[in-house]
Amino acid sequence: MSAPRNSPSPSRSSYANAPTRSVSVDGVDFVYRQLGPEDGVPLILLIHLSGNLDNWDPRIVDGLAARRRVITFGNRGVGGSGGSTPDTIEGMARDAVRFIRALGFDQVDLFGLSMGGFVAQVMAEEEPRLVRKVILAGTGPAGGHGIDKVPALAIQATLKGALIRQDPKLSLFFTDTASGRRAGRAFLRRLEERTDNRDKDISLPSLRAQLKAVKRWGRLAPSDLSAVRQPVLVANGANDRMVPSQNTIDLAARLPKSELVPLYPDSGHGGVFQNHEDFVARALGFLES
What we know:
The protein is of the alpha/beta class. The protein has helices spanning 58-65, 89-102, 115-126, 150-164, 169-173, 178-191, 204-219, 246-254, 271-274, 276-288; strands at 21-25, 28-35, 43-46, 70-73, 108-113, 131-137, 232-235, 258-260.
């Protein structure tokens, strides 16, 4: 693996104070944060619909970065990154590959969450020499059950959240049970731990492009994924209402070299956030095996 070109040494501190850097990708600046050891295969994190750098759970990033170099980034047009957001998952995947190559890496691991999992699937299939291992959480295959309804669910939850002054992630990511609500509130507090140099919220044009891309992904012909030959770890909550949990089981069945984490009980779309200690341990074990 080659070293990043013109890249400062990664921060060894926590994600809450990791510096935000940028790299030029075909003349467009992409923002990213990097922390963890400087050696080994980097782990690139691909965020969910409407997410920016500050939507990653710091417990997951810090936990993974204790033993792996972890890089989060804003894809084209997202947060502080320049350019216009593509309205296809395939376009997002191509931009992610360009970002990785701009940093000078010739091999990486991927962790794709929700929409980021769609992007990771395309990258794994189209760039088998670049992608070594993949972690997929809260996601599903192209044409998966209910995926085309994700944009409508997200819009409804956002509007309802605005009316009742509640972050829509509470209803979209967590179950409406005592433990689910408690986990959701704890997660939102963790997202506020970073107080300086926070990323920009996603713009309305970028969100519209992402919503269109997700709907298109959900309406594609079902993919068999037999061309994805990399080892893949698949995880989710048992009660995901955004990307229905049956997609997780379906995804694992379609992938030739998959390992399915038992679905987290009383957990939804944010199951890996709610169960971050268990998930980080499983993820590190998978990446290091």
